[in-house]
UniProtKB/TrEMBL annotation:
SMART domains: PKS_KR. This is Ketoreductase domain-containing protein. Pfam families: adh_short_C2. GO terms for molecular function: oxidoreductase activity. Keywords: Oxidoreductase.
């Protein structure tokens, strides 16, 4: 869906680094106005805001603070007048065997990886229904599809996010709002920085394409799902993992 005058506004969670940062850059280059949030601003965020204050918005917010997340959406609408695209990109990964994981840690992970996307989606969807449509893209994980040790709570959150996407697509289709999930495979990011070279080799051997993804390949898939070329796709989960889950 196109905004009046071609002005398109995107909100991306966790846009200060990694995949989120690349998505911010790609959407800005494509003519979008882009807003993002994270816990703190790095030099890249500060420089970009100084260069393009009319096109780029950043504010501090914690994924586990639902009131702050709702305030982020209100701020974006106050800044740009609308929100056409929400990309729920930010996530927290805690690796530990389930039996030894503290309940508080599980609560924090579920709050960041499931409740935060739900909160942002609800706030954005309400605005989208008033403006005539929009898109929501939830970045999930192969952990929602295939079991791995040490990530039980994270896997539960991501599987919940996929189910949420499908149900929400049913509810919002009548309002011209598309909702999809993207499941990225292993790619170089903050979440894989601690993966040893030996484990990376194991992952590559289990992946039919024989390598980790480049972050640009994941971004390409996100941008496809949010493009006019995917205008009849909703309620779907696109897996971009080099075949590791097949």
């Amino acid at each position: 869906m196109n905004a009046p005058g071609g002005e398109r506004v995107a909100l991306i969670s966790g846009g200060s680094r990694g995949l989120g940062r690349l998505l911010v850059t790609r959407l800005l280059d494509d003519g979008w106005r882009v807003a993002t949030f994270s816990r703190s601003a790095n030099d890249w965020v500060k420089d970009l805001h100084a260069e393009r204050p009319d096109r780029f918005r950043w504010e501090a917010a914690d994924l586990t603070d639902q009131a702050a997340l709702r305030a982020v959406v209100r701020g974006v609408i106050g800044w740009a007048g609308r929100v056409d695209l929400l990309i729920n990109n930010a996530a927290v990964l805690h690796q530990e065997l389930f039996l030894t994981t503290a309940p508080k840690k599980i609560e924090q992970l579920i709050a960041a990886d499931l409740l935060a996307p739900i909160t942002l989606a609800q706030s954005c969807a309400r605005a989208m229904t008033r403006q005539g449509g929009g898109q929501i893209l939830n970045v999930s994980s192969i952990n929602a599809i295939r079991g791995f040790r040490g990530v039980a709570a994270y896997s539960a959150a991501k599987a919940g996010l996929d189910g949420f996407s499908r149900s929400l697509a049913r509810e919002l289709g009548a309002f011209n709002i598309r909702v999809n999930s993207l499941v990225p495979g292993f790619f170089d990011s903050d979440m894989t920085v601690e993966v040893t070279e030996r484990n990376k080799e194991r992952i590559q051997k289990r992946t039919p394409l024989g390598r980790l993804a480049d972050v640009g390949e994941i971004a390409d898939a996100v941008l496809y799902l949010t493009s006019p070329g995917a205008s009849f796709i909703t309620g779907q989960t696109l897996v971009v993992d080099g075949g590791i889950t097949c």
